[in-house]
Design a protein that fits this description.
CATH architecture: Alpha-Beta Complex
Number of strands: 7
Shape: globular
CATH superfamily: Peptide deformylase
Strand order of the largest sheet: 1-2-3-6-7
Structural class: alpha+beta
Distance between the termini: 29 Å
Length: about 210
């Protein structure tokens, strides 16, 4: 899809929650090197979307943005808990393991038991450019791991054992049929148009591929 000649290439535009199998969900996000007003506005909108959906975490690619960024508030409310934004997160030192039911705003109605490390170290940057290191455990550790998976183009269903994965596949197939139906009716852009937008947004705020090595 062509960009109008008078359009601002850095503009993000309206954002909304996307659902499986939207291409942004299955594409690895790119590290940010630029935080501007448009991105700050997008993060504010991400919190609004998360609260509207009663979620505790939301990754940038869940709203169709190709950036390595996610937000968290474990209380799922603008009136409680702590709003956290993590840019370019890296997880290390996984310890222990625990099984707990998970759901996902981009996989509506699907909930399954998922095994993850109980504790992890998170290194990331804040919107203010401060580097943080957190030793996480419990529910916050699980939320952060779930969102980091999103940034790598993975869904919690990718972590299911075979029997559970087969059960989840039925729901995913239904979601795919609905998504493709909307595309065929012109209610959603084509995959090619979506990828073109993701590539444009990456070019504005992310390091070139050669610099990521």
């Amino acid at each position: 899809m062509d960009i109008p000649a008078n359009a601002d290439p850095a503009a993000i535009g309206p954002i909304e929650l996307v659902e499986y199998p939207h291409p942004a969900l299955l594409r690895r996000t790119s590290p940010l090197v630029r935080v501007d007003d448009a991105l700050c506005d997008a993060v504010e909108r991400m919190f609004e979307i998360m609260y509207e959906s009663v979620g505790v975490g939301l990754a940038a690619n869940q709203v169709g943005l190709p950036y390595r960024l996610f937000i968290v508030n474990t209380e799922a409310s603008p009136d409680a808990g702590e709003e956290m934004v993590f840019i370019n997160p890296v997880l290390s030192r996984p310890r222990g393991n625990a099984v707990q039911e998970e759901g996902c705003l981009s996989l509506p109605g699907l909930r399954m038991d998922v095994r993850r490390p109980e504790k992890v170290i998170l290194d990331a940057w804040t919107m203010e450019g401060e580097q943080v290191r957190l030793d996480l455990e419990g529910f916050l550790s699980r939320v952060v791991q779930h969102e980091c998976d999103h940034l790598d183009g993975r869904l919690f269903t990718d972590r299911l054992p075979d029997a559970a994965a087969i059960e989840a596949r039925r729901s995913l197939d239904t979601m795919r049929e609905l998504f493709l139906g909307k595309q065929s009716r012109g209610e959603l852009p084509s995959d090619a148009e979506i990828h073109a937008r993701l590539t444009r947004l990456e070019a504005e705020r992310c390091a070139p591929v050669a610099e990521r090595r």
